[in-house]
Amino acid sequence: MEDRIVIDLETHHGRPVIRGTRVPVTRIIDALAGGMTNAEIVKEYEVTEPDIRAALSFAGDLIEQQEFHPLPNPWRRRGSSPTKTCRALQQIISYTREQNLCLITVESARLRVRS
Prior knowledge:
Arc Repressor Mutant, subunit A; three-stranded antiparallel beta sheet
């Protein structure tokens, strides 16, 4: 399936796309999440069923490679002030640096990182 997904700097700024097209993997995943059927995606984006499965597999592999570290959420604490929030963010940044991790996002008290 890996031969169906390509990453080329000349196509969509290096975002993963379906080979032979300019259709990003994210567009396929978003279409499925939005309720489109495989048949509708094949017709709309001119890809194949194996392309759709490869896009799902690619996304699953990316998620599998990530680590999730639960962190305290400074925004939900009672009496939280901008100073406390700033300190908490500094601690998060220090933690990611110490662990040699790349900070991707902070969402819902969960830090998503990629090594």
